[in-house]
Amino acid sequence: MRNFDEATITDAVLQRVRAAKDDRIRQVSEALVRHMHAFVREIEPTQTEWEAGIDFLTRTGQMCDDKRHEFILLSDTLGVSMLVDAINHRTPEGATETTVLGPFYVQRAPEHPLGADISGTMEGAPLLVTGTVSAAGGKPLAGAVVDVWHSDNDGYYDVQQLDEIGDLAMRARFRTDENGRFWFWSIKPAAYPIPHDGPVGKMLEAQGRHPWRPAHVHFMIAAPGHQTLVTHVFAAGDPYLDSDVVFGVKDSLIREFAGMPAGTAVVGREMAQPYYHLNYDFGLKANSEARRTGERAA
């Protein structure tokens, strides 16, 4: 086959990719061709616009290194990351809703005892975080692993400033007690912009959008027999809740960072200054529930 034009080129490409031996590769390739060709037909790009698009993707790749992945930012800011998350985590009643992992997760966060202060050398308003981990609508889960991480009061994560602070901070791993409870101290996080000095930032500017995320604390929670939960808890009243640049906010994940007076905290620590308190009770989806909802294995 030859002499293709705009009326015949799509079918020709589809015919060739059908030679793929793997069924999933064939399915994905066919869908990609159909939708990409439909996109081009809809916008009818000029040759200059097409070249600009190729240049944008090239520069996006060139911005990627071991500390920054511009393509993940592109996926996040176009809502693709949250769409993939939503498809793969259809949540049963009683289970906590999920959000994206984000770029600042560290696999080997230090493990601390319950009640530890994980702020390290960082300065900011003290924050007490308390909560529980249970099976969705069921019993408390003892020994669940609770990974937490968040930004400082200027919106920066520890990995963005290791040269200055010298060690990880505002992140840790805890294990729930016999009643599924956990608690720890840190500092109150702030809203922050995603990195916007590259191609994705220029795209946001051209689209008339800001690069900001509302203040939040990240959680990754794992327990035997249950699907690992990846989520955030967002600060109520944050001005960016309705315009989160990565579309991650859900009403069920918003909580008050309640202002508390100096004195004896709910976990018994004596506080000489006012502090904030965040509480959230998490529900994990059982592995059997994940199979019933037809989710693909991670």
Describe what you observe in this structure.
The chain has 298 residues and is an alpha+beta fold. The protein folds into two domains: 44 residues, no CATH class; 186 residues, Aromatic compound dioxygenase (Protocatechuate 3,4-Dioxygenase, subunit A, Sandwich), CATH 2.60.130.10. The chain contains eight helices and 13 strands. The strands form four sheets. The protein has a five-stranded mixed β-sheet, with no helix packed on it. Strands 4-1-13-10 form a four-stranded mixed β-sheet, with no helix packed on it. A hairpin with a 6-residue loop joins strand 7 and strand 8. The chain is elongated and about 80 Å long. The two termini are 40 Å apart.
Radius of gyration: 23 Å
CATH architecture of the largest domain: Sandwich
In total, the number of domains comes to 2
CATH class descriptor name of the largest domain? Mainly Beta
What's the tally of helices?
8
CATH topology grouping of the largest domain: Protocatechuate 3,4-Dioxygenase, subunit A
Output the strand order for the largest sheet. Answer: 3-2-7-8-9
Major sheet details:
5 strands, mixed
Regions with pLDDT < 50 over 5+ consecutive residues? Answer: 290-298
Percentage of helical residues? Answer: 25-40%
Structural class: alpha+beta
The overall average pLDDT, rounded, is 93
Distance from N terminus to C terminus (CA atoms, Å) equals 40 Å
Describe the global form.
elongated
Total strands: the figure is: 13
Strand-and-helix sequence, N→C? HHHHHEEHEEEHEEEEEEEEH
